[in-house]
Amino acid sequence: MASAMPNKGLQPTPTASARPSLRLLARLRPGVRRLRVEEKILEQYRSQGVDSSCNRGVMHIRRAIEADMPNMVAIAETKRVEYEGYSPVFWRKAPDSSPKQERYLQALLTAPDIIALVAQVEDGLAGFAIGALTTAPPVYNPGGLICIVDDFAVTPPEEWPVVGGALLAAMARETQARGAVLMVVVCAQRDQAKRTLLREAGCSVASEWHVKPL
Questions:
Q1: What is the CATH number of domain 23-200?
Q2: Which of the four pLDDT bands, split at 50, 70 and 90, describes residue 122?
């Protein structure tokens, strides 16, 4: 059964030469951090759509549906294994992490404040991003809604520049259209490929979490 979220594309892109340079996306360093997408980056992508090409063929960015859940969970599980190696206690994977996440994602797809996007290449998924629209804590005033992007992964890691870049651009456009003024993206301190993408997309580090096992 499909989720209530419509399965529609997000503005097809013109030719590769008309696309913004996706070299804006590709080498990283992680840590849980807050990253701001600069207005000039949003402007560059705004009128150009999000279809593109990656190493495996033509890629299409669209809304996630319930049928995407197994592939999204598989991509996320691979990422969890990678992150567990970065910080074995903080990111220690639960034995039943996949079924738990699938139930969690199914609930997210029907939530009105969630934007769930996938990158489809042929019959499979190359990545996904989930953004949650929310308000800032009352002691801060960024000037509007913020979008927290925590679940954001691609496969394989070499596709961060194109697949991750297209997902990030689509998420920025969608969240801005819904009134958000700030996008907060979570990234591990040692996730070099993702960090590079975020930095070259105009994001900056606003916060980091330091952990110490006790």
A1: 3.40.630.30
A2: confident
